[in-house]
Recover the amino acids of this structure.
C-alpha cells in the first residue's frame, strides 16, 4: 500500500503537470485561431456527449502546420536556429576542450579549485550572465572602448544586436556544460596510456590524436548535446543580445504567443521544435547509456 | 634456468648494452636515485628488486625516456640517451597497468607501435600475427581489452611491447595484477619468450620470489642505491649485507662480536652464558668487531638430542609451529628469549611428526651454513 | 608529477578570464557614479541605495524568494520519492513512461514547458499567480532533484538497509534512520539546485505568472530589454556576491570534512 502511494504521488504529479499540458499543446496546435476566450476553436464540449467529441475531433486539422511551411519566417527560423546552435556548439567545443584538458593536466591540488571556478558561474543567474555582455558589446561598451584605445579600430564595432553577440552569449553561458563532461572523461583517463603511446613511437601530438581524443569522445559527445539541445530552443540570449534580424525559434514562439496571441500557431511551432529535438535527445540518451555500459 | 656459460658480467671483454654512470635523479628535494652505476648486458633478464619507493621504477622510467637523470649519464649500446624522447628510443615498456588502449582491439593494440613506424601493411599484419601466436592470443585478436581476462590482457601488453622488436624491454611489475597461481605460470612463459626472442629484459618487481625465478641477475635496491647486484643464488646464499639477507627469504640473525680463529674460521660470542657460535667466512674481520651471523631456516636442523658432530648447537623450547603442508617451520625460543626458525620438509605424514609445542629441542648447523656479515 | 605546458597555462588563463571578466566588469560598473554606464565618473554606492528604495524590485525579490523556497521544498520531496521509485521501486506498470517523464523536462526547451503549463492553467481555469509559478517550478526542478538523488541511491549499499531491518527496524524506520542520513548530502544539493533553478528562471515564470506576481528575473528582463541599467548592475553584484560566498563556503565545508575524514582514517590505521 505504501509502495503504491510512493509511486502514485510523483507519477500523478508528472502526468498532470507534464504530460497533460503537452497533450493540450498538441491539441491546440490542431485547432484554429479565434477572437474569443480562449483564443482558439474548437473547444471540447463534453456535455454534448459522444457527438460533442466527434464534432471536436472533426474540427481538428493540420492547417497550422501547413501554415508553418508556407510562411518562410518559420522554416527560416528553424534553419537559422539549427545553424546557430550547431555553430555555437562547435565554438564551445573549441573553447572548452583546451580548458578541460588544462584542468586535467593541472596539479592534483589545484583541481578542486579549478572545478569550483567552472561550476561557480553555473550557480550565478543565467540572465545576469547574458546581461553582463550587453555592457561589454554595445557601441559604447567596454570592448569597443578598449579596442579604440588600443588603436585596433577607429570606429566602434557593431556587435550587440547581431548574430555574433548571440554566438558569444551561447558560448559564454554554456561553456561549463562543455567543460565538465570532457574534464570528467580526461580525468578518468590513465596517464600511462599516453606514456604507452609515446613509448610505442608517437609524438606528443599524435598521442593526443590517437589516444586522448578517442578516449574523451564520450565526454565530447555529451558536452556537445548539453550545449546544442538548450541552445536550439534558446530565448533569452537572442532576445537580449541578438538583433531584430536574429531569427531563433524560441523567440518566434514567444512573439507568436505574447505579441500575436496566436496560440494555435505558437503550439504548432512548439510541436515542430520538439520533433526536431527528438533526434538529438535520443542520440544523447543512447550515448549516455553506452557510456554507462562501458563503465560497468 | 640460465646455462652456466651465459655470464657476460664475468667477461671483461663484454660490452654492456646499458650503462648507468653515476646517475642521480632528484624530484625537488627528494633524491630518488643516488649516484648509481650499473651495467646490464645483452640478452640478460635483469631484475630491479626493492620495496616501494626504493627508486626502481624511476630507473625504469629513465630507461624508457619518461624521466631524465639530474646528473650522470645513461648509455644504451654506447650512446648517451639523455634527451632522446621515448618515441625515438629502441626501448619499449610494458606498463604495470598494462595501459592497453581501451578503444582499440587486441589486434590494433599490438599493431599500434608498428604503424607509427609507417611499415607497409603486410609487414604489420605479419608481425602482429607472429606476436599473437607467440602469446597464444590468436582467438582474441578482435576483442576489446575489456572483453578478455586479466591474464590475456597481460599477454596483449607483452605482445604490444615486443612487436617493435626493441633492443630492450622494460617490464614494470608485469605480474602485479595476476593471482598467485597464474603468476607462476606466467613467469615461466615470460622466461620462455625472453629466450625465444633474445631480447634484453629489465623487470621491476617488489616480489623477491618472482625476481629469483625469472632473473639472470638481481639488483637489490634501497633508498635510491644499489645494495647488491648478483645472480639469484648468490643473492640468496651469499648476501653481502644484513639488508639483503633479511629482504630475500627468511633468515635468523645472531648479533655478536667476532674473534678470528685462523683459516677463515671465526668465533662469534653472541649471548651471555651461551656457547659461542662458529662460522666460516672468506672475508676478514677485526677481533672484537660487531657482526651478524645470518642463517637460513632450512639450514638449521632440529633434533631431540644434541648432535655429536655439529659445529653449532643451541637448545630451546618450541614456541610455535607453522604447518605449511610441504614443510613445517618451528619457532624455537632460546633461553635468551630470541626466536630461531628451523624448517623441515614434511616427507612423512603429520601424525608421525616428532615434535610438538613446548618440547625442548636442539638446533644445529655447520660452520659453513651461515654467513658472517659486518654490522 | 604533472607539469603544465605553456599551452595548458595559456588555455586555462584565457578560459577563466573569459568566464570571469564579464562578471568582474559588471561588479566594477555597479559602483560607477554616472548614470551612463560607459563613462566612469568615480566610485559611488548610489545605485545600491536606489535599488533598495525601489519597492517594485523589493516586491519582486520577495515573490521570487517565496516561490523558490516553496517550489524547491516541494520538488525535493517529490524528487526524492521519484528517485526512490526509480532505483528501488522494482517493476511496475508504466515504469518506462515514468522514467521518460523524469528525464524529458531536463532537455525540454523552456519555451515549450512554459507554453504547455500556461495552456493547462488556462484550460482548468486556474488564476495565474504565485501558486501557478510554484507548480511550474516544482514540476521541472523535481526532475533535477530526482536525477541527483537517484545517482546517490544507485551507489548506496543495500545491505545497510537490510542490516537495519535485521536489527528490528520497520521499512519506514530503516529509511528514516539509515537511508535518509546517508543520502542527505544529495538531497540537500538537490534542494539547492531546485532553489537556484527557481531563482534563475525567466521563461517559465513569464508564461505562468499573472499580473499579480512578478518575479525578479521577469523584472530584470523587462528592465534590461531597454539597455544597460546601473540599478541592475547593483542587483547583479548583490546576487553574484551571495552565490560566490555560498559556493566558497560549501566547498570549504566539504574540504574540511574531507581533511578531517582523511586524518581520522590515518589515525585509525596507526591505531
Amino acid at each position: 500500500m505504501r509502495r503504491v502511494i510512493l509511486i502514485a504521488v510523483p507519477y500523478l504529479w508528472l502526468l498532470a503537470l507534464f504530460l497533460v499540458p503537452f497533450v493540450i499543446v498538441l491539441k491546440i496546435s490542431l485547432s484554429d485561431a479565434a477572437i474569443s476566450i480562449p483564443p482558439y476553436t474548437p473547444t471540447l464540449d463534453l456535455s454534448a456527449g459522444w457527438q460533442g467529441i466527434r464534432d471536436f475531433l472533426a474540427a481538428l486539422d493540420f492547417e497550422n502546420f501547413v501554415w508553418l511551411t508556407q510562411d518562410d519566417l518559420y522554416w527560416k527560423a528553424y534553419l537559422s536556429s539549427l545553424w546557430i546552435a550547431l555553430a555555437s556548439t562547435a565554438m564551445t567545443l573549441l573553447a572548452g576542450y583546451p580548458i578541460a584538458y588544462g584542468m586535467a593536466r593541472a596539479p592534483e591540488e589545484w583541481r578542486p579549485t579549478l572545478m569550483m571556478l567552472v561550476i561557480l558561474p553555473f550557480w550565478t543567474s543565467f540572465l545576469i550572465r547574458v546581461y553582463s555582455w550587453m555592457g561589454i558589446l554595445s557601441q559604447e561598451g567596454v570592448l569597443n572602448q578598449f579596442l579604440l584605445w588600443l588603436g585596433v579600430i577607429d570606429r566602434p564595432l557593431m556587435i550587440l544586436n547581431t548574430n555574433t553577440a548571440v554566438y558569444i552569449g551561447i558560448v559564454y553561458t554554456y561553456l561549463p556544460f562543455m567543460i565538465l563532461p570532457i574534464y570528467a572523461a580526461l580525468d578518468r583517463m590513465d596517464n600511462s596510456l599516453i606514456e604507452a603511446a609515446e613509448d610505442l613511437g608517437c609524438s606528443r601530438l599524435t598521442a593526443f590524436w590517437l589516444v586522448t581524443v578517442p578516449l574523451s569522445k564520450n565526454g565530447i559527445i555529451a558536452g556537445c548535446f548539453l550545449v546544442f539541445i538548450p541552445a536550439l530552443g534558446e530565448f533569452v540570449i537572442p532576445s537580449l543580445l541578438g538583433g531584430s534580424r536574429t531569427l531563433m525559434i524560441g523567440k518566434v514562439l514567444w512573439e507568436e504567443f505574447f505579441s500575436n496571441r496566436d496560440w494555435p500557431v505558437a503550439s504548432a511551432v512548439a510541436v515542430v521544435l520538439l520533433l526536431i529535438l527528438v533526434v538529438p535527445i535520443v542520440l544523447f540518451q543512447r550515448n549516455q547509456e553506452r557510456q554507462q555500459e562501458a563503465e560497468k | 634456468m640460465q646455462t652456466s656459460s651465459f655470464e657476460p658480467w664475468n667477461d671483461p671483454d663484454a660490452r654492456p648494452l646499458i650503462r648507468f654512470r653515476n646517475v642521480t635523479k632528484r624530484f625537488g628535494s627528494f633524491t630518488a636515485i643516488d649516484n648509481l652505476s650499473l651495467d646490464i648486458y645483452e640478452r640478460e633478464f635483469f631484475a630491479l628488486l626493492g620495496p616501494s619507493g626504493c627508486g626502481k621504477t624511476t630507473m625504469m622510467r629513465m630507461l624508457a625516456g619518461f624521466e631524465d637523470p639530474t646528473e650522470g649519464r645513461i648509455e644504451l649500446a654506447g650512446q648517451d640517451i639523455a634527451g632522446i624522447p621515448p618515441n625515438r628510443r629502441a626501448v619499449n615498456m610494458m606498463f604495470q597497468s598494462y595501459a592497453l588502449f581501451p578503444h582499440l582491439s587486441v589486434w590494433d593494440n599490438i599493431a599500434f607501435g608498428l604503424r607509427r613506424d609507417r611499415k607497409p601493411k603486410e609487414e604489420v599484419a605479419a608481425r602482429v600475427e607472429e606476436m599473437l601466436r607467440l602469446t597464444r592470443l590468436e582467438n582474441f585478436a578482435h576483442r576489446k581489452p575489456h572483453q578478455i581476462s586479466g591474464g590475456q590482457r597481460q599477454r596483449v601488453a607483452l605482445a604490444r611491447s615486443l612487436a617493435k622488436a626493441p633492443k630492450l624491454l622494460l617490464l614494470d611489475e608485469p605480474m602485479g595484477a595476476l593471482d598467485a597461481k597464474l603468476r607462476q605460470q606466467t613467469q615461466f612463459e615470460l622466461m620462455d619468450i625472453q629466450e625465444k626472442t633474445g631480447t634484453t629484459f629489465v623487470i621491476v618487481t617488489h616480489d623477491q620470489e618472482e625476481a629469483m625465478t625469472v632473473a639472470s641477475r638481481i639488483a637489490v635496491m634501497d633508498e635510491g642505491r644499489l645494495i647488491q647486484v648478483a645472480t639469484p643464488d648468490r643473492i640468496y646464499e651469499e648476501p653481502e649485507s644484513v639488508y639483503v639477507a633479511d629482504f630475500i627469504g627468511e633468515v635468523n640473525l645472531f648479533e655478536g662480536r667476532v674473534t678470528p680463529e685462523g683459516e677463515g674460521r671465526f668465533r662469534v660470542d653472541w649471548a651471555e652464558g651461551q656457547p659461542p657460535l662458529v662460522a666460516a667466512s672468506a672475508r676478514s674481520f677485526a677481533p672484537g668487531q660487531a657482526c651478524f651471523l645470518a642463517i637460513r631456516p632450512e639450514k638449521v636442523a632440529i633434533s631431540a638430542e644434541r648432535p655429536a658432530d655439529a659445529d653449532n648447537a643451541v637448545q630451546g623450547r618450541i614456541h610455535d609451529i607453522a604447518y605449511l603442508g610441504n614443510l613445517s617451520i618451528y619457532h624455537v625460543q632460546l633461553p635468551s628469549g630470541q626466536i630461531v626458525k628451523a624448517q623441515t620438509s614434511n616427507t612423512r605424514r603429520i601424525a608421525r611428526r616428532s615434535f610438538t609445542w613446548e618440547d625442548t629441542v636442539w638446533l644445529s648447523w655447520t660452520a659453513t651454513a651461515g654467513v658472517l656479515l659486518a654490522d | 608529477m604533472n607539469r603544465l605546458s605553456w599551452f595548458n597555462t595559456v588555455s586555462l588563463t584565457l578560459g577563466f578570464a573569459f568566464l570571469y571578466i564579464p562578471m568582474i566588469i559588471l561588479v566594477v560598473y555597479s559602483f560607477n557614479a554616472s548614470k551612463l554606464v560607459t563613462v566612469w565618473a568615480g566610485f559611488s554606492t548610489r545605485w545600491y541605495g536606489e535599488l533598495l528604495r525601489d519597492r517594485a524590485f523589493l516586491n519582486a525579490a520577495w515573490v521570487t524568494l517565496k516561490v523558490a523556497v516553496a517550489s524547491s521544498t516541494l520538488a525535493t520531496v517529490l524528487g526524492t520519492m521519484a528517485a526512490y521509485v526509480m532505483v528501488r521501486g522494482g517493476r511496475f506498470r508504466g515504469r518506462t513512461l515514468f522514467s521518460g517523464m523524469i528525464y524529458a523536462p531536463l532537455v525540454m526547451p523552456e519555451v515549450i514547458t512554459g507554453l504547455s503549463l500556461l495552456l493547462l492553467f488556462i484550460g482548468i481555469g486556474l488564476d495565474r499567480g504565485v501558486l501557478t509559478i510554484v507548480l511550474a517550478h516544482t514540476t521541472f526542478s523535481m526532475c533535477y532533484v530526482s536525477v541527483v538523488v537517484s545517482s546517490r541511491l544507485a551507489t548506496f549499499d543495500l545491505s545497510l538497509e537490510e542490516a537495519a531491518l535485521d536489527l528490528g527496524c520497520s521499512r519506514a524506520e530503516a529509511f528514516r534512520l539509515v537511508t535518509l542520513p546517508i543520502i542527505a548530502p544529495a538531497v540537500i544539493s538537490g534542494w539547492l539546485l531546485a532553489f537556484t533553478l527557481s531563482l534563475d528562471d525567466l521563461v517559465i515564470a513569464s508564461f505562468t505568472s499573472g499580473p499579480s506576481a512578478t518575479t525578479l528575473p521577469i523584472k530584470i528582463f523587462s528592465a534590461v530589454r531597454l539597455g544597460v541599467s546601473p540599478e541592475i548592475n547593483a542587483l547583479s553584484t548583490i546576487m553574484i556576491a551571495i552565490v560566490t560566498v555560498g559556493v566558497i563556503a560549501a566547498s570549504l565545508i566539504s574540504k574540511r570534512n574531507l581533511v578531517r575524514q582523511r586524518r581520522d582514517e590515518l589515525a585509525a590505521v596507526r591505531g
Notes: Chains B and C do not touch (no CB pair under 8 Å).
